């Protein structure tokens, strides 16, 4: 027997709670942090070497890699991408 969805969609619920922007920003940050960690692993880079390539401190890199820290700037993301020979792409949809 098929069940019909009862209630609203998850997106609607987030809107009703007034937390959609916050939840979306957190999810984007977690994805970016995981992508940087994966790229570092692929390149065989330690945190120390990555920070050196970015010309930043290890603590600044730790903030970038912390999935819960949402205060990362585009400049920091760009430095990380450049340090690994990659680029940042952003898109508004």
The major β-sheet equals:
none
Overall outline: elongated
Distance between the termini: 37 Å
Radius of gyration over C-alpha positions, nearest whole angstrom: 17 Å
Low-confidence stretches: none
Question: Averaging pLDDT over every residue, what do you get?
Answer: 90
Order of helices and strands: HHHHH
Number of helices: 5
Structure description:
Helix 3 (47-54) packs across helix 4 (58-65) and helix 3 (47-54) packs across helix 5. The chain starts with 9 loop residues before the first helix and ends in a 10-residue tail after the last helix. The longest helix has 24 residues, at 20-43. The protein contains 5 helices and no strands. It has helices at residues 10-17, 20-43, 47-54, 58-65, 74-83. It is an all-alpha fold and 93 residues long. The mean pLDDT is 90.
List keywords for this structure.
93 residues, mainly alpha, 0% strand, elongated
In short:
The chain has 93 residues and is mainly alpha-helical.
């Amino acid at each position: 027997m098929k069940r019909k969805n009862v209630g609203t969609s998850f997106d609607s619920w987030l809107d009703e709670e007034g937390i959609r922007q916050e939840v979306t920003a957190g999810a984007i940050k977690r994805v970016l942090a995981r992508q940087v960690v994966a790229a570092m692993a692929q390149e065989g880079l330690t945190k120390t070497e990555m920070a050196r390539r970015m010309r930043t401190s290890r603590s600044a890199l730790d903030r970038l890699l912390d999935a819960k820290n949402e205060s990362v700037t585009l400049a920091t993301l760009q430095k990380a991408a450049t340090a690994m020979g990659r680029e940042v792409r952003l898109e508004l949809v």
